[in-house]
Each structure stands twice: as C-alpha cells, then as structure tokens.
C-alpha cells in the first residue's frame, strides 16, 4: 500500500472512530473482548464483525491505534471500542467493573467447553505470532483458557478463535441479557 492510500485509510478510520465513540452501543451480552497488540490487518475487523453478531458489550484494543475497516463490514459502527496504550489501563477498567478475565493460551489447563463463564467475562487474545505482550506474572488473577484441538497444527487464526469463544459464551448464557 502506498503512502497516499494509507493516509486516506487512516483519515477514514479516524472518522469512523469518532462515530464509534458517539453512536456505538453495547450488545445484549456482558462479555468483553480484549485484543492485545494484534496486527492492524484484517483480523481486528473480522473480530468486530463476530462481536457484533454475538452481541458483545465492547472491544478493548491495546497498542493498536489503527486497523483496516474493510473486513469489519460496518460492525465498527456498532460495537463500542476502547483504545489503550497498555494492558494495565484496560485491566484496571475491567477489574473495577468486576470482570473475570480469561486469557487464551494454547497450553492452559482450563478448556473451552468445560469452563463455566460468569456473566461478566472478558476474553484476552494476543498477537498470533507473539502472543500477549502483557507481563503474565503481574496479573495472577487472569485465568488461562485453551481451545481443545485435535489436528496436528494446534493453531487457530485469532479471529476464528475469538469467534469460537464468543459462540461458547452465548451458548452458555442464552440470547437474553440478564
């Protein structure tokens, strides 16, 4: 992508970001998605689409100031987005709101489908290549969570993993906000 195209996309993004602040509203469920330093490519937009479809309350983005809106297909207009420079500010906000935080980790002992999620659940997803950037030892109350897989690769695209987790939360809590 050339510089002129990138500047145009960033300008469009800022316009949509202002719209998001004023007009996006929480979905019917109390779960929150946290995206820790994801690449600005297509996965973030896809996660917004799934979050809108599954009725997420909001999405928190850490270390991301811009992403491609193309794959969001308009969902960025509807799902409230909060931008953080560090995980600490996101964590403090969610802890103050009594959220239980689950961090997706391939080696976690707790397995999706067996775990009972509290109504106020926040799911943290990291960069596909590097994982989360937060200091895991500084946040001992984070519950590790894995998605059981049966193939040889043992890896899902982050937007697919987020969709699977959102589906499981909605499966457990039904379709009506409590």
Question: What is the gist of this entry?
Answer:
By secondary structure, the protein is of the alpha/beta class. It has helices spanning 3-23, 43-54, 87-96, 158-173, and strands spanning 32-36, 58-62, 81-84, 100-104, 121-126, 143-145.
How would you describe this protein?
With 178 residues, the protein is an alpha/beta fold. The chain has one domain: Alpha/beta knot (3-Layer(aba) Sandwich), CATH 3.40.1280. 33% of the residues lie in helices and 16% in strands. A 6-stranded parallel beta sheet has the order 3-2-1-5-4-6, with helices on both faces. The model has no long low-confidence stretch (mean pLDDT 92).
The CATH architecture classification is 3-Layer(aba) Sandwich
CATH topology: Alpha/beta knot
Cα(first) to Cα(last) distance is 45 Å
> Count of helical segments?
4
Helix proportion of residues, in percent?
25-40%
Low-confidence stretches: none
Instruction: Assign the CATH class.
Output: Alpha Beta
Molecular shape: globular
| Total domain modules | 1
> What's the SSE pattern?
HEHEEHEEEH
Number of strands: 6
The main β sheet shows up as: 6 strands, parallel
> CATH homologous superfamily, by name?
SPOUT methyltransferase, trefoil knot domain
Q: Please state how the strands of the largest beta sheet are arranged side by side.
A: 3-2-1-5-4-6
Query: Roughly what fraction of the amino acids lie in strands?
Result: 15-25%
Structural class label: alpha/beta
Q: Oligomeric status of the shown chains?
A: single chain
Mind telling me the C-alpha Rg? 16 Å
- What is the mean pLDDT? 92
